[in-house]
Each structure stands twice: as C-alpha cells, then as structure tokens.
Amino acid sequence: MQAKDIMTRDVATVRPGASIQEAAKLMTDRRLNGLPVVAADGHVIGILTASDLLHRKETGAERRPSWFSSFFARPDELARQYAKDHGRKAHEVMSRHIISVVEDASLGEVADVLDRNGIKRVPVIRDGVLVGIISRSDLVRVLSQTRFNETAPRSDDAALQRSLLEQIRKQPWLNSGFVNITVKDGAVDVWGTVNSAEQHTALLVLVKEVAGSAAVADHVKVGALNTLPGWV
User: How far apart are the first and last CA of the chain?
Assistant: First the structure.
C-alpha cells in the first residue's frame, strides 16, 4: 500500500491571512492538532499546530525568557518566538519548515517520517500542492483491517529448527550463544538466558513468527549473562 491509498483527501486547511482565532476554532471543532497553511494556488506554505499556539499572551501563557536564556539565544530564534506569541495571522505564527510525503510513498516510509520527526500527521504533496494528509491513526486503522495469516507448522522438525536458529543468529539485540531451540513432533521448545525482559519478549515474538501455528514452550530465563556461550 502507498500513501495515496490511505490518505484523507478532504483536508481541513487555513489560508495564510486567516486569524489565529479562526484557526484555533477550526482545530477545536474538527478535533485536530494541526492545519496546513495553503495559498490560493493550493501550494502548502507552512503548518500551524497546537504547539504554535501554546504560549499566547491572550491566554496568559506568553513566554517570559530569563535574562540568561535571552543573552545566549540567537536573535532569529527570539524573533520566531515573539511572532508565535504575538502574531495574529496564520502566516505569522505557522512553522515554515514543511515535512511531507509524496503520493507513492510506502506506508513504511510514512511511518518513518512520523516517528523520526515526532509528528502526528503529515501532508501528502504532489508538485508542492496538497492532495491529502495521513495521521498516525490512519496507519493504526490499516492495521485494524489487516488479517493476520497463521503460517502452517513445518512437517520437518530439523528444517524448522534450522530456520529458527538462522533467524536468531541474525538479531543484533540478542546474544545467540545463550539461546537454543529444540523441535520435536512439530512442537518448539526455547531454552537459554537473555539479559532483559525486552529481549525475552522479542525472542518469543521471533520464534512464534517463524514457527507459525506450531506450539511454543518457553524455558528462557531472564538475567545478566555472565558465563560463556554454550549453544548455537
């Protein structure tokens, strides 16, 4: 699937000259935390988010930087903060750094952009023009509609064991020397020691993913590894 397959096409936007009160009301009415600022020709020129409206003097939340922080802050940064706290139009308060994706971006690429930049939604752009928007909830919705297929267990115990050990050795988060796998009559037993609960959980997820619907018995202990590797 690509961005165009899951994006919302009816996007709430504001014009550059819209007042911040208009923008705030639209965010409140539509339960949004951000709005693309779009020029008359459809080009996105900025993003106005709830964070941009946090420190308004009208609400008594205006920033009051100390002399120390003001002395070391760059003039451009102080100017941006002043505009956000005092500006009355969307174009005066918006963030001009636009993070976006293209229509044919994979869902993995979209998720990376959202995660890497710590944002909740990202505009979808075609030649600079807004064509849609994707939120984190859109990706969750795709997951909710996905059917998980259970892999049938392999009839060959040795082949399943080899596959499991091969995948375990590839994991950078696991010391495979302290983990062993046995397979008998299609049932998998996991043995060994791992450093943490996180590694324990991830190891069992890996085993169940590779083993499919085969029964999996967990004999792994969680604790610091202080002996030489014995298996694998």
Answer: 38
| Token pair recorded at residue 28 | 């409140």
Domain 157-222, CATH among 3.40.50.2300, 3.30.300.30, 3.40.47.40, 3.30.450.20: 3.30.300.30
Amino acid residing at 113: V
Q: Name the residue type at position 134.
A: I
Q: Are 143 and 137 in contact (CB under 8 A)?
A: no
Give the distance from CA 108 to its chain's centroid. 9
Task: Name the CATH superfamily, with its identifier, for domain 3-144.
Answer: CBS-domain (3.10.580.10)
The domain ranges of the chain are: 3-144, 157-222
Look-up of token digits 């760059």: 74
Answering whether pTM is above 0.90, one says no
Tokens describing residue 226: 């202080």
Nearest to 31 by CA among 53, 50, 10, 47: 50
Asked if residue 103 lies in contact with residue 3, where contact means CB atoms within 8 angstroms, the answer is: yes
- Chain segment 153-185, per-residue pLDDT in tens: 566 999 999 999 999 999 999 999 999 999 999
List CB contacts of 158: < 8 A, sequence separation 6 or more: 183
